Amino acid sequence: MKIAIEGCAHGELERIYDTIACIEKESNTKIDLLLCCGDFQSTRNLEDLQTMAVPKKYLDICTFYKYYSGECVAPVLTIFIGGNHEASNYLQELPYGGWVAPNIYYLGYAGVVNVNGVRIAGISGIYKGHDFLRGHHEFPPYTESTCRSVYHVRQLEVFRLKQLSGKIDIFLSHDWPTGIYEYGNKAQLLRKKPYFAADMESGQLGSRPLEELLKAVQPSYWFAAHLHCKFAALVPHQNATKAPTQMGDGSSSSSSSSSSESDDEESTSRLPPKPVAVTKFLALDKCLPRRAFLQVLDIPSEAIEGNPTFEYDAEWLVILQSTNHLISVKENYYYLPGKKAGAIAERFNFTPTEEELDSLTTKFQSLKIPENFQRTVPAFDPQEQSNYKHMVVGQPTAHLNPQSNTFCSVLGVDDPLCLALLANGKDLPAVAVKSIDQKAEETIVHVQDQCQDQETIEGSSSPPPEPLVTPSKRKLNLFLPAPTVTADATAAEKDDSAIDLPEEDEDPKTAETAESEAVDKPKVEAVPPAPSSPPSVKKLKRRNQNIYQAEDDD
Ligand code: 5GP
Ligand code: MN
Asked: For the whole model, what pTM was predicted?
């Protein structure tokens, strides 16, 4: 399978797809998948733009909105993680991942998916030590502080990723693992970026949790961005404890996790053992002319007929479910279970067992990721809003996304954004059942209906209310559901629980507020098909680049 990897996209989707089209034409080949390593900037409209952490003068709507509105269609399945310049309000709607536009999929705070049998894991955000141990307490509209902390990596996602067993083919991160420069051409890197030297000396260049993940997960490939330069490295994994296995490329390898809590016990997973002794690391630049921002690799996969298959990862779903009780939405530091827990008999190894993997089939008959994108807000209008740089626009309030609603209901997990809103005494916004396109059509029908009515009945009634799932019908689901529950037997039938957060995280206000709001959860909504949009007409001409200069604002 031919995979294109992009460094920082910085909203330049049109340019990236144009580049891919050029490569396909020149090398007479087809790219099957595009992976983007953050700073994606999925701003749908001007309100989204206000949630992006960037100096005001650099606020640029760029081109993502065209793929959201349907004016253009992503020509290749695109998967991305978040960086430190994002439409944070939109990404927060999809904590476990989801479609941000047709054919463009966000991996969530962290996520694992399978594309044609290639197992891809990733984590969003950048590392800042002072926020790592906090819960996901942020929600829009953001303050000066939460507008930045919202994209800082949290321990829960790192903990969850460390529970993975079996082979990970590709890992995506925005920043680099600390120490990675020791495994490549460090001298050349320092010639390009001499100001990295001080941070290298002090061990500050990159992310420590990512270094731990690199050693624990040992993926075949690791792709990153953020430092705005191309850099390759080969990382050998030395601490092998298991019997060597034969790698696909003929080399021999062994596997183990070095720093994962999950290595205490032999993995009970049915997945094949990790067969990689070396991780091939590649960081790419941001999308600018004459910069190394895109790389195409041919990675062994299942045979492709037409579009690649795109599936959830069973092990990851089980981990999300079995660690659901570890979610915190509090701002203060809290601690996750570990082997040094002493007398506390609490589970700390969440690598899924056979039984847990089996129980998943009662919820997911198929692991195929549904094509359930819906437009839920109006897209940027370039005609009406051409002078947007001079307009005063406020931040949006929080929206709940129907994709997350469906995912959480089926898997029996909580949406951290809902929890954060409830914990802060906010009302939950309604979840749209129909996309705004369908609503627009309905409005036209109503207007016509009224016109017809007026011919027969004078002063006819107003149109019916919009089809929404009311927030009061949503139920918190902080206990694990029984493994036998079927997809449409939701939390409403199985859960009359009170909040049961870990002791360190106990917050009377959270528990009270949440308990008082705990009413029936909505039934799983039918999954509507993705709206079809006309294919885009691509222009291959080079335009002047509005150079993105917001260097290292975080
Ligand atoms: P962004 O596009 O995310 O605002 O900024 C990325 C820029 O910040 C790049 O130019 C990158 O070199 C710089 N940068 C990011 N992290 C670090 C770091 O830890 N140390 C140094 N010296 N520069 C960094
Ligand atoms: Mn960045």
From this structure: 0.78
